[in-house]
Amino acid sequence: MASINTHNGVFGDWAGLLSANKDKASLLPAAEPLRAALEGILVEGKVLKDRQDSLVGDKQRTTQELQAVIVRGKEAARRLRAIVKGSLGTDNEQLVQFNMAPRRKRGPRKAKVTPPAGTPPPAGTPNTPKTTA
Prior knowledge:
Order of helices and strands: HH
Helix content: 55-70%
Number of helices: 2
Distance between the termini: 89 Å
Strand content: under 5%
Shape: elongated
């Protein structure tokens, strides 16, 4: 017989076993202590399963609340940074402390490096005329 793995399947199996045992209680007097123990375990298992289901719902609700707090926090941080930038100015280097880049002047452009005249281009360069002797 296949093994039952789901909680509801296990509980259903136990309930069926207890029901069958009650029907044949007169034939199985030695099974009475085990039947009583299994009844207690079934009740305890159902209580724990209900608690587990409740905790899943609580976890989902808590996750939704956390996401809402993060959205509100991002908006508050964005507004606070705007006030800081407006108060200190956009060029102030202290903006770095608030994780914002200050407006900086551009540095000088780098000149392109050209090879000195008379040096041959590297081998395998396209558009290089090949000479045949």
